[in-house]
């Protein structure tokens, strides 16, 4: 069998990209600090209603950086093996939320992550109580969303089991 030029790597359709975002809760956030790119893992919730990524953070360089330069990249992967994987890259705009809006979205984030973990891991997430107590210890976190402007994805292997082909 002759392998194609890109090694069997194919494009995910937009709907498949969004499904991958909704099936996961940990991704990598890329942002610029003093003209240098940084990448950090974050817990997130994909808000399908608003086509955005929700998250929170304590104050620090990540939040300061995104306030200064709001364009970000965000990546989520599902790697089964070197021959079977999916990857989604999101471009978007950082938006800090405040007041009652922040509380509303923090609640949506918390419930969304809990639901995603329960679906993905077939059980009740054990970390939610720990997660909630950490939020209370740190005071009010900075709640933010990434408004998705573009999403692209690639995959390799047979994901027809997941209904993706």
Explain what you see.
With 165 residues, the protein is of the alpha+beta class. 31% of the residues lie in helices and 41% in strands. The protein contains 4 helices and 8 strands; from the N terminus they run βαββββαββααβ. The chain has helices spanning 14-22, 61-68, 99-121, 128-138; strands at 9-11, 26-33, 36-43, 45-47, 52-57, 71-81, 84-97, 142-156. Strands 1, 2, 3, 4, 5, 6, 7 and 8 form an 8-stranded antiparallel beta sheet that branches. A hairpin with a 2-residue loop joins strand 2 and strand 3. This is Pyridoxamine 5'-phosphate oxidase family protein. InterPro entries: Pyridox_Oxase-rel (IPR024747), Split_barrel_FMN-bd (IPR012349).
Task: List the main descriptive attributes of the protein structure presented here.
single chain, 165 residues, alpha+beta, eight-stranded antiparallel beta sheet, 4 helices, 8 strands, 31% helix, 41% strand, disordered C terminus
